[in-house]
Specification:
Residues 144-248 form a coiled coil. The protein is of the alpha+beta class. Helices cover 43% and strands 24% of the residues. It folds into 3 domains: 5-54 and 294-371, Beta Barrel (Elongation Factor Tu (Ef-tu), domain 3), CATH 2.40.30.170; 57-89 and 249-292, RNA polymerase II/Efflux pump adaptor protein, barrel-sandwich hybrid domain (OB fold (Dihydrolipoamide Acetyltransferase, E2P)); 97-247. It is built from 5 helices and 16 strands. The strands form 3 sheets. Strands 1-11-15-13-12-16 form a 6-stranded antiparallel beta barrel. Helix 4 packs antiparallel against helix 5.
């Protein structure tokens, strides 16, 4: 239904005349849900509105099941705890039993004697690694200490041989000894130098061998830790799979084999399955969606030239198109800070909430919404979102 501004402006011209013609008699206030006075109320802004809703609750199933029965139809009203759909969960129970068996088996394997032996081996390897690492870093390994002592002695003897050679070099230059005698001391120095070199090489080899032992121990440790981790992870993964599957049925909209409404007041918006449908459980599958009846409101299309004359405090009543003899009190939920175009006009869709429930305010129905006009234009004072 399109709002006709020309007819509306003409109506505003006629309404005051009707009002003055009948002003001799005081008219009592009309209570909620009573017939609308034919004369109307002077100065009201009347906007066409459509009943809408803001909240939809989708119910999905993510475990194996079969739809056994559907207890509601699209458009049905439902209350908290109302049965919506009944499921056959035989496949789900089989899956849970299978996962329970796997979890028990993995746990038993983790608690086996091999598990304890792995832990003991890991402890021993860690101690060996710590000890040998200390030996390598401070040179306290007996073989290293012996080689270090040998090196120190060889270095002293090399120094003594060098001093002797230097002394006999002077004697040779003075002709006090023969060259053959001098060469004997030179040969001694070569032997001592070789001894120093051999001692250093032996130390390097021993340290390398110790490092290789450490590397081997670390490799063994890594292998043992991986085995232990695999056992523990297998048990944990199996238990996690079981817990996740059990959690899938612990939802506020599930009661035994029944899908129920967990809304205080709802309306069935859509049913996405049929009786006998199979839910494979591999992904979440939507089965039904409910409108939250408490989120129902009227979207009133107020022309832009009148929006400044209403506020969040404006008095409001709703006249359903399905029963024009009724007027239902309400209040403004929102005056949007944005206009939209409709049929060449600019309108603001003001959200109005009825103060009481009515069978004449249902999603998709239409109504006329009456707003009391502000006594002075102060711009848009309503709630801006």
């Amino acid at each position: 239904m399109r709002f006709d501004k020309r007819k509306y402006l003409a109506a505003l011209t006629i309404v005051p005349l009707l009002f003055f013609s009948g002003c001799q008699k005081n008219q009592p206030a009309v209570p909620a849900n009573t017939p609308v006075e034919s004369s109307g109320q002077s100065g009201d802004i009347v906007a066409w509105g459509e009943v809408k809703y803001s909240d939809v609750y989708q119910i999905s199933i993510d475990f194996p099941a079969r739809v056994e029965n559907i207890a509601v139809k699209q458009g049905d009203s439902v209350k908290l705890g109302s049965t919506l759909i009944t499921l056959s969960t035989d496949d789900y129970q089989k899956t849970v039993q299978k996962l329970q068996t796997q979890a028990d088996s993995a746990k038993a394997s983790a608690n086996h004697v091999d598990h304890a032996a792995l832990k003991a081996d890991i402890a021993v390897l860690k101690n060996q690694i710590a000890y040998k690492t200390k030996e390598l870093s401070n040179g306290r390994k007996p073989e290293l200490q012996l080689l270090q002592n040998t090196l120190s002695l060889a270095q002293k003897e090399e120094k003594q041989a060098q001093d002797d050679l230097n002394k006999y070099q002077k004697l040779l230059s003075e002709g006090m000894i023969s060259e053959s005698d001098y060469n004997k001391y030179s040969d001694v120095l070569d032997q001592k130098t070789k001894a120093v070199k051999d001692a250093k090489n032996n130390i390097t080899k021993t340290r390398r061998a110790l490092q290789e032992e450490l590397d081997n121990l670390n490799t063994q440790l890594k292998s043992k830790e991986v085995q232990l981790s695999q056992q523990e992870n297998s048990a944990n993964a199996a238990q996690l799979d079981l817990d996740l599957m059990n959690a899938k049925t612990k939802k506020p909209y599930l009661s035994g084999n029944n899908i129920i409404s967990n809304l205080n007041s709802g309306i069935v918006e859509e049913i996405s399955v049929v009786r006998g449908a199979i839910i494979n459980g591999q992904t979440a599958q939507k089965v039904i969606s409910l409108i939250d009846a408490d989120s129902i409101y009227v979207s009133a299309e107020v022309p832009e030239e009148f929006i400044g004359q209403i506020s969040a405090d404006s008095k409001v009543y709703i006249v359903p198109a399905s029963n024009k003899d009724m007027k239902i009190p309400g209040h403004i939920l929102q005056i949007p800070n944005q206009a939209v175009e409709k049929d060449g006009d600019r309108i603001i869709k003001v959200q109005v909430k009825a103060d009481e429930k009515s069978d004449f305010i249902k999603p998709g129905l239409t109504s006329d919404v009456h707003f009391s006009r502000e006594s002075s234009v102060k711009g848009m004072k309503g709630k801006i979102n």
